[in-house]
Amino acid sequence: MRSRAAAYPLLAVLAWGAMFPILASALSRVDPLNLTTARYLFATVILVAILLFREGPAALRLGGRGVEVVVLGVVGFAGFNLLTNLALEHAAPQQISLFVATTPVITQLVRWARDGVRPKPLLLALSLVALLGVGLVITRGSLVGFGQFGLGGLMMIGAVLGWGIYTHGASRFGAWSPLRFTTLTALAGTAAMLAASIGADAVGWQHAPAAADLVAVTPQLAYAVIVAAVVAVLAWNTGVQRLGAANAALFMNLVPVTTFVVQIVRGYRPEAIELVGAAITIAALVAANLATRARTRSSSLPRPTAVTDPAAVVDPVAVAAR
Questions:
Q1: How far apart are CA 81 and CA 140, in angstroms?
Q2: Do residues 47 and 55 make contact, with C-beta atoms less than 8 angstroms apart?
Q3: How many CB atoms are closer than 10 A to CB 299?
Q4: Cα 203 to the chain's mean position, in Å?
Q5: Are the C-beta atoms of 263 and 18 separated by less than 8 Å?
Q6: Each residue's pLDDT tens digit, 124-173
Q7: How many CA atoms lie within 13 A of 145 on its CB side?
Q8: Given 21, 42, 96, 287, which residue has the most CB atoms within 10 angstroms?
Q9: What DSSP state is assigned to residue 210?
Q10: Cβ atoms of 179 and 234 closer than 8 Å
């Protein structure tokens, strides 16, 4: 069951890893805030249509959790995506993607601060090992590269913190379907993005794209909407519900490795130290998954349903059906 559940976050991070170079190529025609807003306007329309078809109008109700949904939508969707696109103007895609690998550690720290759940030493250690592997991939074994991030790096720190909060929040909505949670938080986040873009256009910080510009980036926008926004975010939230926030977040270490592979396909030739780093990252993820499954099998007592740790929910589908 957990092996199949792991396919969801894996699909999401592979899609996001390819997204960084794709979005970077579109920023030459469309400003970052407008690009992000256009992407999620289309994606949200698709998500709402799917939600209405699958679960009906009642699924659009917030069920008394409106404030939480809005905060997660603004911090997660708007915060992460706006800051990431802005950061891509200041650093290369593979540099930006390095910061995404800090998501496992950030998520565990958010969970510790929010729920008082201390990170399991093994899981935290494997997160750090995977992060070390990613660092080797991106920096080619030299610490000099870390001094080149500048403003883009600061933006990504904020972006990753926002996504860690969103990931933790998603795991607390076990009674909602991943589709419902994704759609409602996307609506809130898209509204915030639209407000930010309108404000930036009004003060001259950026300029509304012409029709020709949008047509020019149609392929990139199509990938960012359908694959990276709709499919990947749905897969991610499904994985968070089934694996728990801390375990799902481990897969974020593969984002920069995927970006690295995309760059190779585009003609980049890696050094041996980079290949070693990729192997370390993958090995740490596999070890974390095996350790999690072993811990699950060793636990013979049922967990109470009224806990704050969503990983205690064995079958979220059954919970959602209640």
A1: 27
A2: no
A3: 9
A4: 30
A5: no
A6: 788 788 878 777 776 776 666 555 556 777 888 899 899 889 988 887 88
A7: 16
A8: 96
A9: P
A10: yes
Measure the CA–CA gap between 228 and 231, rounded to whole angstroms: 6
SS (H, E, C) 15-66: HHHHHHHHHHHHCCCCCHHHHHHHHHHHHHHHHHHHHHHHHCHHHHCCCCCH
**Percent of the chain whose predicted confidence (pLDDT) is above 90:** 25
Q: Where are the beta strands (DSSP E) in 46-192?
A: none
Q: pLDDT class for 311, splitting at 50, 70, 90?
A: very low
What confidence tens digit (pLDDT) does each residue in 243-276 have?
A: 887 788 788 878 888 888 888 888 877 778 878 8
Q: What is the DSSP letter of 275?
A: H
Quote the distance between the C-alpha of residue 265 and its chain's center. 23
Look up residue 90 and give its amino acid: H
Q: Rounded distance, CA 33 to CA 205, Å?
A: 10
169: helix, strand or coil: helix
Structure token pair of residue 58:
């009642």
Q: Is 205 helix (H, G, I), strand (E, B) or coil?
A: coil
Predicted pLDDT of residue 322: 33
> How many Å apart are CA 252 and CA 258, to the nearest integer?
10
* Mean pLDDT, residues 27-38: 89
Residue 70 to residues 34, 177, 187, 189, 320, Cα–Cα distance (Å): 21, 17, 8, 7, 21
Backbone angles phi, psi at 301, to 5 degrees: -95, 140
